[in-house]
Design brief:
The protein is α+β, with helices and mostly antiparallel strands. The chain contains one helix and eight strands. About 5% of the residues have low confidence.
Length: 143
């Protein structure tokens, strides 16, 4: 009984430190401060307050990625994922994905997409140097 207690006391701090290290690493996923906006019109400084999350099908949806820390790579991957009820991937499927060459000296990126199918979607943007780390993520609905 005493040996088991000593073994537990000697192993417990190691396990605790390992858990905190993993939580710190995975807790910092994403670029802190990066924001992703959606709008039915091209986004500019004058209309950035007119962003939304509900858009009609078959229309342009503009998005703006603001990254105050800047980009670490010259390429980003933009991915749109749709919530599906009939799929093998926990209800989600990749609807669209595209890689972009960006100016890494800039702190923003803007483009648009068109979706024809109504539903709930989310967009996530990755840097090419780490596809496990999301720069920004936001969701929207197509009516």
């Amino acid at each position: 009984m005493n040996k088991k207690f000593l073994k537990f006391v000697s192993v417990f701090p190691f396990v605790l430190v390992l858990l905190f290290a993993c939580a710190f690493r995975w807790g910092n996923i994403g670029e802190k401060g990066a924001l992703l906006y959606f709008s039915s019109q091209p986004i500019q400084k004058t209309n950035i307050q007119n962003v939304g999350r509900f858009f009609p099908a078959q229309t342009r949806v503009y998005y703006l990625l603001l990254n105050p820390k800047g980009f670490r790579d010259e390429y980003i991957r933009v991915q749109i994922v749709k919530k599906e009820e009939k799929t093998y991937h926990w209800g989600y499927k990749i609807h669209w994905s595209k890689d972009y060459h960006i100016d890494s000296s800039q702190k923003d990126f803007m483009s648009y997409f068109v979706i024809n199918e109504p539903g709930y979607y989310f967009m996530q943007i990755f840097s090419f140097d780490d596809f496990d780390r999301v720069i920004a993520r936001n969701d929207f609905w197509i009516k």
